[in-house]
Structure formats: C-alpha cells, structure tokens
Design brief:
Shape: globular
Largest sheet: 4 strands, antiparallel
CATH class: Alpha Beta
Radius of gyration: 15 Å
Oligomer: single chain
CATH topology: Aminopeptidase
Number of domains: 1
Length: about 150
C-alpha cells in the first residue's frame, strides 16, 4: 500500500511523486516511491527514491537513493529530501533505514553524517549485484534508527 505524498515538503523544497513501483519478487526488489526534488517555485533540482522494506538488495543499495543537479549542490537539499523521506518511512512502520554511499563521494557520506547516520561498515558489493555491474566495488553502509 502506498501513502499520500502531497505533504512531503518543508520551507525550501517539496517532493513531487513521479511513480510508485510494486515489489518484484523475482528481482528481489521491494516496493518503492520515486520523486523529483523541487524548489517551492517548481524548479526540479534533483531526484530521490524510497524503497520500503529490508533485504540483501536494500542492505547494499540502501532504502534511499538521491542525486542533486550540479547547479544546486552545496545547499543541503539531499539532506532535506531525506528528512522528508524519513517521515514517509515511519508511516510504513519502518524502524530503521539504510543509506549507502560510494566511499569516494564525500558530499554523499557527509549528508549521511549530517542526518545522524551510523556507519555500519564499508562493504564489498557482490559480483551479482547491479551496482557491481556498473563498476562500483564498495559502499559505505549507514543506518538510521527511528526507535
């Protein structure tokens, strides 16, 4: 079941729902929401997604993914979007989330630190994972507890 996302906004951004995706058991994918990150004036500045549930894929790939367009970086928009996604995750009764980052992506792991994530480990990406196929070999795994 997917929830209303129209209230996912703060003083500077809102999340505009692009689509939802049901679980795909054959691919080991959990249900997901996909958003554009927009300024309050409607300008699209990036994207984010929230994957509901936990399994081996979300441990390596994370429950949240995000990206900010180059012209808008440095304003903590990714952290603001994640805070909004945390609210949606809590609606789904998730007691924690995983966000993973490329160890070389300083801005992304600083976002996780700014949000209060705990670095669980730096993990090797399994060879059969799609992230490995895209050339990634390791990920920083951050956990965010809501209890």
């Amino acid at each position: 079941m997917f929830y209303d996302t129209s209230l996912l906004k703060d003083q500077t951004i809102y999340l505009k729902l692009k689509k939802t995706s049901e679980a795909q058991a054959e691919k080991n994918w959990v249900p997901a929401y996909y958003f554009d990150i927009c300024l309050l004036n409607g300008t699209k500045i990036g994207y984010c997604d929230l994957r509901i549930g936990h399994n081996k894929n979300t441990y390596i790939g994370g429950n949240i993914g995000y990206g900010i367009d180059a012209d808008y970086r440095g304003n903590h928009y990714a952290a603001k979007a994640c805070r909004l996604l945390f609210k949606l995750a809590k609606q789904h009764n998730m007691s924690y989330l995983i966000i993973t980052t490329d160890p070389a992506n300083i801005a992304s792991y600083r976002t996780c630190e700014r949000l209060g994530g705990e670095l669980i480990e730096i993990a090797d990406i399994p060879k059969n994972h799609d992230m490995y196929q895209r050339g990634m070999r390791k990920v920083n795994i951050y956990q965010f507890d809501f209890s």
